[in-house]
Amino acid sequence: MSCRPAPAGPRILVAALDWGLGHATRCIPIVHRLLSRGATVLLAGSGASGGVLREAFPNLSYHELPGHEIRYARSAGGLMWKILQQLPRLARTTKAERRWLARFVQQQGIDAVISDNRYGLHHPGLATVFITHQLGIRTPLGSVGNNLLRRYHYRLIGRFGACWVPDGPAPGLSGLLGHPGPLPTVPTRYIGPLSRFQKAEAATLFDLAVVLSGPEPQRGIWEAQLLQQLTNFPGKVLLVRGQPRDKTSVTSGNLTRVGHLPAAELQAALAGAALVLARCGYSTVMDLAALGKRSILVPTPGQTEQEYLARHLTESGFACCLPQKDFSLQQALATAGRFSYHLPTASGHQHLDEAIDELLARLEVNREA
């Protein structure tokens, strides 16, 4: 009797947007779970976020996507105008993504795509999943403008087969961003917060860990604003500059500056910090929730999503959130010392596991048909 080899697992492309690093970092637990279930995972990205995926999974096949290369304004008031100026280029990049995927499907013979905010990675012959935490759109345009944008956003999501939202039940970590009321017409699942980190007991290594992130020029502006204040800070400080290509580490007095830390080292550093100072990006919020860390969060000026999150997380007691304008580290630490923190209990990845199992079961049915 001849023994037939076991059928290979499904081939799944996981792709992340390149606006900051968070879209890539939150794909990491998804990739781990796909691999543990026997799937063949191919990665795609661009820029620094693509580097995060390559670093996390050096043995997986990685493919370069068209880059978005979004630029933020130097001032909060100019951010919306800056993004509006870039919309034609973003639309061209989305079309380039569609062409890229059409060629990729022919060359690689994949079965499914999981796209974190890459709007062009849908295909009529594949199972496709779109990941976003921002179903509700927050802009300075008011409720009418936000509702119109949400409807347009849902049209884009409707080109995919399903939508996964990395949050738990309402209000969750994302508040009205992830729980706006009306949902997209495609099947939409809440898969729980996504983080590459796990909570662990650790001795205190730093009095303060500062993690910079996000697109330029705001990342650099925020770094320059903080540096002088950090050099005068009496405790031990770690500054992670959010520059994946920068492997340097410099210690001067109580301040240690590093360009980037691999995931395991960053987890250890944050776990060993008495307090974390960071941007109010949603992926950062999910990482802090997983680690159970007290934090001071500062939204990127003019980025309405982060400004809304700051209000929501302050009201819920998750984080002490303060504006960047006239930021004083001394005053922020005093405010955080009086803040009543209420950190959520880590929920695990049960909902993510269920969503992945459902996707793989559907792929199995498709392959047998």
TrEMBL record:
Residues 261-334 form the Glycosyl transferase family 28 C-terminal domain. Gene3D superfamilies: Glycogen Phosphorylase B. InterPro entries: Glyco_trans_28_C. Keywords: Transferase. It holds the Pfam family Glyco_tran_28_C. It comes from Flaviaesturariibacter flavus. This is Glycosyl transferase family 28. GO terms for molecular function: hexosyltransferase activity. It comes from the Bacteria.
